[in-house]
Design goal:
This protein is of the alpha/beta class. It is built from 13 helices and eleven strands. It folds into three domains: 30 residues; 251 residues, Type I PLP-dependent aspartate aminotransferase-like (Major domain) (Aspartate Aminotransferase, domain 2), CATH 3.40.640; 84 residues, Aspartate Aminotransferase, domain 1. The chain is 44% helix and 13% strand. The longest helix is centred in the last third of the chain and has 35 residues. The N and C termini lie far apart (50 Å). The protein binds pyridoxal-5'-phosphate. The site of pyridoxal-5'-phosphate has 14 residues, from helix 4.
Length: 442
């Protein structure tokens, strides 16, 4: 949708809401007169391959959403949209609604990790009690250990802090990926010290360098120990809708929960973080308090999402997914991902053509990590400082195993090749100046 159409559609939407307030509001009963599951019969089971028209979408808003105004439509569209998305990612059937599993929209990946941790904590406490481990909850919680790689996002450490459990950061290998053996060794060491492993977060597409923890090794370790495996693919997850990137998700069958942010790379506005459980019973058990004023006659027929996350009230965020998936179609969304990856590859080629630079990590998606070759961390940090002070482009650095590097990240849906060429010209100009000034230093 270009700016011109956006302007027009935006004005139409204001009229739609104003018409509702002026003419229609009293036509609708306060409680929607629809049966649980009504929406499933009105919406296809899968996302469209090709883009659909905005007018068709708005017709459906009137015909299928408005009769279920307020909660039923909000819950049911979310169930169906999370199934659409799960099918686009080719998630195992266990994550699709109908059985014990299913998806829910959280606000952010940080919340998803925290919710998964709390569910896993509750599951482990129940298991320990069944197996006659005596002690108060707080004593047992003090022995629980969560695991992630040293490349995991800071939100994992924070989830542990909030959940009052220990966080063991496993040392990643030389390409910054967590390996099964290292995880196993970390757990063994903790168990020998009387601690109880209960939760592992594997990251696909780490924030510092877009590395991928080895799911096919980590999964069996978690399975053997009956430990909850959560997968954080906040950034990279969007790419897995393309068959050529889906192999990064191999091993997903071992996961108890999986999360990625359509608001990061799938053209959905903030906030929209997609999370799936293999067995939602664990999170429901952990979060269920059930006062009388929240009971209703349809319990058990559709997910009670209030037990799947921290807030009670919820926004109608699935509308964003519905609009985006239909307006772009699977094809359009794949094209968007491929365009970014191809621009990142072109930037990589520019770096490769200049012997002063070296690429520090494999370029798999839209992130390119690099540094000045054979130069100290200080000089590289100075280059980044100058780039950001210059102000024409902006970059964020990282550091892995003592090596400082610059990160070129493609984020905007509007980025085109000339923008990449422009960024490259800024980087080379500032690097030339810096290297000239530092000729006599390392
Ligand atoms: C961005 C990111 C996060 C944090 O996402 P929020 O939705 O802002 O909480 C967590 N993990 C990874 C791997 C990320 O890329």
């Amino acid at each position: 949708m270009d700016a011109e159409e956006f302007r027009r559609r935006g004005k139409e939407m204001i009229d739609y809401v104003a018409d509702y307030l002026e003419k229609d509001i009293r036509k609708y009963p306060p409680l929607a007169k629809v049966e649980p599951g009504y929406l499933k019969k009105l919406i296809p089971e899968e996302a469209p391959g090709e883009p659909e028209s905005y007018d068709d979408l708005m017709k459906d808003v009137s015909n299928v959403i408005m009769p279920g105004a307020a909660s039923p439509a909000c819950t049911e569209l979310e169930v169906i949209m999370m199934d659409w998305l799960a099918k686009m990612l080719k998630l195992p059937d266990k994550f699709i609604s109908g059985g014990k599993g299913g998806g829910v929209i959280q606000g952010t990946a940080s919340e998803a990790t925290f919710v998964a941790l709390l569910a896993a904590r509750n599951k482990m406490l129940a298991f320990l009690k069944e197996n006659h481990k005596t002690g108060e909850d707080k004593e047992l919680i003090g022995k629980l250990v969560a695991y992630c790689s040293d490349q995991a996002h800071s939100s994992v450490e924070r989830a542990c802090l909030l959940g009052a459990v220990r966080c063991h950061q496993v040392v990643s290998d030389d390409v910054d990926e967590m390996r099964g053996e290292a995880l196993e060794a970390a757990m063994k060491e903790d168990k020998e010290n009387g601690l109880i492993p209960f939760f592992v977060v594997a990251t696909l597409g780490t924030t510092p360098c877009c590395s991928y923890d080895q799911l096919l090794e980590i999964g069996p370790v978690c399975q053997a120990e009956e430990i909850w495996l959560h997968i954080d693919a906040a950034y990279a997850g969007s790419a897995f809708i393309c068959p050529e990137f889906r192999p990064y998700l191999d091993g997903i069958e071992f996961a108890d929960s999986f999360n990625f942010n359509p608001h990061k790379w799938l053209l959905v506005n903030f906030d929209c973080s997609a999370m799936w459980f293999k067995d939602s019973g664990h999170v429901v058990n952990a979060f269920n308090v059930d006062p009388l004023y929240l009971r209703h006659e349809h319990e058990g027929k559709v997910p009670d999402y209030r037990h799947w996350h921290i807030p009670l009230g919820r926004r109608f965020r699935s509308l964003k997914l519905w609009f985006v998936m239909r307006l772009y179609g699977i094809k359009g969304l794949q094209q968007h991902i491929r365009k970014h990856v191809s621009l990142a590859k072109q930037f990589e080629e520019m770096l490769k053509s200049d012997a002063r630079f070296v690429i520090t990590h494999k370029v798999t998606l839209g992130l390119v990590c690099f540094r000045l070759k054979d130069k100290s961390n200080d000089i590289n940090a100075e280059l980044l400082k100058r780039i950001n002070a210059d102000g024409r482009i902006h970059m964020v650095p990282s550091n892995s195993k003592g090596v400082y590097f610059l990160r070129f990240a493609l984020c905007s849906s509007r980025t085109e090749l000339p923008d990449i060429e422009f960024a490259w010209s800024v980087i080379t100009e500032l690097a030339t100046n810096l290297l000239d000034e530092n000729k006599n230093y390392e």
